[in-house]
């Protein structure tokens, strides 16, 4: 039996190599830590149906390689993404300093309206921290991003990060800021939505019928 959902959102997980992007995706999909993780070559993919504000949403997630040599390959996957997790490693100043470049790529190649959540990963390595919560929070504010610190190891805030981003997309659909029918929006109606719309249309037609 195929999955039933109201919406499908295309998501990206972007950021420098070694920030734990694949581990975040694995923790979200499988609810466990991926102990042996090598650098992603090109792009990896995962999907999960979640409940967002009473709606069933399928997240189609593309985990992109952070290494520079794969940049040209991964950039082609940005097109038509509705949301993205922009990941840095709280123990690596270098990955934090690279955020502006990743952010520019996402807003240029995906869409200026893409919903982006900044993720400070490896929260479990507090003793090795190089980037403060306050500093990253300020960066998020200046660039109109949502922000969370996560631990792919313990699972802390991992699901919350994906759900927070999805909630923001859903809210913009409901206010009309995002149109699922616009090509390249990164959003599609699922079969459950179509069934609901059809039911509503049938109910509206019934009173007109004088049998």
TrEMBL record:
Keywords: GTP-binding, Lipoprotein, Membrane, Methylation, Nucleotide-binding, Prenylation, Protein transport, Transport. Its main location: membrane. PROSITE patterns: RAB, RAS, RHO. CDD domains: Rab4. It is found in: Endomembrane system. Belongs to the small GTPase superfamily. Rab family. PANTHER family: DRAB11-RELATED. NCBIfam families: small_GTP. This is Ras-related protein Rab-4B isoform X2. It comes from Limulus polyphemus (Atlantic horseshoe crab). The gene is LOC106462498.
């Amino acid at each position: 039996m195929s999955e039933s959902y109201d919406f499908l959102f295309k998501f990206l997980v972007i950021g420098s190599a070694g920030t734990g992007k694949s581990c975040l995706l694995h923790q979200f999909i499988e609810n466990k830590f991926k102990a042996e993780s090598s650098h992603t070559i090109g792009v990896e993919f995962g999907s999960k149906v979640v409940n967002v504000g009473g709606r069933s949403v399928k997240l189609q997630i593309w985990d992109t390689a952070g290494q520079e040599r794969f940049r040209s390959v991964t950039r082609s996957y940005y097109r038509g993404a509705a949301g993205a997790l922009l990941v840095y490693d709280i123990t690596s100043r270098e990955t934090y300093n690279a955020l502006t470049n990743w952010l520019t790529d996402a807003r240029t190649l995906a869409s200026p309206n893409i919903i982006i959540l900044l993720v400070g990963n490896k929260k479990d390595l507090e003793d090795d921290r190089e980037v403060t919560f306050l500093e990253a929070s300020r960066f998020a504010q200046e660039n109109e991003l949502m922000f969370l610190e996560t631990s792919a190891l313990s699972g802390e805030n991992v699901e919350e990060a994906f759900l927070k981003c999805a909630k923001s997309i859903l809210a913009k659909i409901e206010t009309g800021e995002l149109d699922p029918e616009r090509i390249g929006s990164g959003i599609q109606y699922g079969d459950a939505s179509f069934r609901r719309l059809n039911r509503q249309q049938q109910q509206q037609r019934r009173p007109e019928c004088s049998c």
